[in-house]
Amino acid sequence: MFTSIVQDLKGLLSSNSVLNESKKLDELIQQYNQMKNQSINESEDVNELLAKDLINELKQKLKTEREAQKKQNEIIKEQKMEIIHQLEELIENEQNIGKAFADLKSIRDNWTKLTEKSPLEQKEIDRKFSKKLEDFYYNINIYKAIQEHDLKRNQQLKEVILEKLKKHSSETASKNLILEIKQLRTEWESIGPVTRDLQDDFWSKYRSLLDILYLNFKDFKASEKEEQLVNLNKKLDIIRCIKEINVSDLISVKDWNIKVKKVLSKQEEWRSIGFVPKESKDELWKSYRLACDTFFGAKKVFFDEQKKIYKANKVLKNELCKKAEQLLNSENNYELTKEFIDLQSQWKKIGPVHQRDEQYLWHKFHKTCNAFFQKRKDSKKQLDAERDSLNIEKENIINQLKETSIESEKQLLDHLSRWWKTNRNHTRKSNQLEIKFQEVLESKLENKTVREFENENIQAKIGIYKDFNDDGEMLFKESKAIKDKISSLQKDITQYENNLSFFGNSKGSNELMKDVYQKMDDLKEQISSLKDQLKLIKTSLK
Question: Beta-carbon neighbour count of residue 241 at 10 Å?
Fold first, then answer.
């Protein structure tokens, strides 16, 4: 009877995706249930059992595929957000129009591939991508306008230089003229391109004018000697600059790096200077080498000593890493927060280590600190969840008390005991809810106040607080609250005593004094009751 459905189920099980055949699976399950209901045999035959097992296996496979598809959709969503981020970077930073369009093509190709695989639920991300495309084309249009302006400006600048070169080509050669031509060449090379149709023409005119000018420099050789003397003075200035560095003033790596950069810059400048007179060449080179060797020799001594300091600092930072890892494995996150902050403070006070170790050690220490504070954050979330649960429980107790018809104080004590049990953790709403509960409880009591009712049942309250797994913390808080209350009441009594001294023998003063004395007696009675409660708490804490 179940043979055909077993075959269909096996075929479905061997398919590549049960998810794509989920509708067919539902039909087979419905068919199976109908056949099962129509079966007259009380015992299940082999095919029926097999069909049942196949259906369970297909359901599990369908569940697995759906979970995999959900994860895949999340991955696609993340990849799409990354592509949108790439497009945002392109919009913000890329000004080369050709490269921008090439990068855009790559981005759109990647987006298209992802869109083919993404679900319809991701339409919001697709709209965001479309908006960024609009921003891209808007910015590109601005860049095109800027580029056209730059090409036109470059053309105008180069036309000015060509005009100057043409004018100088008819002048007599001189040193100033040579310098002027060099300056014009520098300016030409610093100017950007012109439009393609003008590039060859401009370059041809430029080279022709330079050829004419250099042919006119007949006295160039005569000026060469003078230039060599100028070069000599420049190199002497470089040697003097290096010698003037006082290495004893360099006390930090930063100081040395600044001066090393300066010396390297001077060495680069030395190499850029042309020839000097032949008779000065060797002696000049020896002086230069001596100045450089002296400086870099002192640098080596400093950094050799610095390596020892790096080594000592590395030991200290490794110890801090070990301490942090030990603290991370401790349980009380809140108590250890200060110790972690102290470790971070100690880390800042330790000097640097070698660059190859600095990043590794910092990453190791930083990772441990982050793990600790994440662990603390997770604990806080758990505590917040527990507090939210307590708030709900408190609200339920209030509502139940409102709706309950009270026939005895025992019923009220049951509600009050449940309320005390919710005090194991204080929440932001605790005070607000406490006021509501007190109001409802007050409305249910007859001939006594909430305070009197609680005082009568203080033993029950202490018993409940004693059962909290908090090392007596709640009882200590209760004790402190009682002490604060006693202190407040004593201040009230003192105030009343001071007020009595102002009463005279005027008419009606005796009645006022009686009222004050009565209030003082009530306060003293409250203090006596509170002191008895303190004794009970102290006894339970022993």
Answer: 15
Long-range CB pairs of 113-118, under 8 A, 24+ apart, other chains included: 114/76, 114/79, 114/80, 114/83, 117/72, 117/76, 118/73, 118/76, 118/77, 118/80
DSSP 8-state class, residue 20? G
Please give the Cα distance from 342 to 339 (Å, whole number). 5
Q: What is the DSSP letter of 505?
A: S
Q: Return d(Cα 318, Cα 308) in angstroms, integer.
A: 15
Q: What's the half-sphere exposure (Cβ side, CA atoms, 13 Å) at 524?
A: 10
**Could you tell me if 237 and 231 are in contact, meaning their C-beta atoms sit under 8 angstroms apart?**
no
CB atoms within 10 A of CB 529: 15
Cβ-based neighbour number of residue 195 at 10 Å:
12
pLDDT tens across 354-365, in order?
Answer: 777 888 888 888
The two tokens of residue 464 are: 């409940």
Among 249, 368, 246, 356, which Cα is nearest to 307's? 356
The pLDDT tens digits for 441-496 are 788 887 778 787 778 778 888 787 777 777 777 778 878 888 888 899 888 888 88
Per-residue tokens: 365: 């220490």
- Start-to-end CA span in the chain (Å): 77
Q: With beta carbons less than 8 A apart as the criterion, state whether 147 and 97 touch.
A: yes
DSSP string of 418-460?
Answer: HHHHGGGS--TTHHHHHHHHHHHHHHH-SSS-HHHHHHHTHHH
The pTM assigned to this predicted structure is 0.32
Classify 52 as helix, strand or coil: helix
Q: If DSSP states are collapsed to H, E and C, what string results for 76-112? A: HHHHHHHHHHHHHHHHHHCCCHHHHHHHHHHHHHHHH
Question: Residue 478 — φ and ψ, nearest 5°?
Answer: -60, -40
97-101: which pairs have CB atoms within 8 A and are 24 or more residues apart? Answer: 97/140, 97/143, 97/144, 97/147, 100/136, 100/140, 100/143, 101/140
Rounded to 5°, the CA angle 239-243-247 comes to 145
Q: For residue 409, report the phi and psi dihedrals to the nearest 5 degrees.
A: -70, -20
Long-range contacts of 13-17 (CB under 8 A, 24+ apart): 13/54, 13/57, 13/58, 13/61, 17/65
Residue 502 belongs to what H/E stretch?
none
How many CB atoms lie under 10 A from the CB of residue 368? 21
Q: How high does pLDDT run on average in the chain?
A: 80
How far apart are the C-alpha atoms of 287 and 249, rounded to whole Å? 23
SS3 327: helix
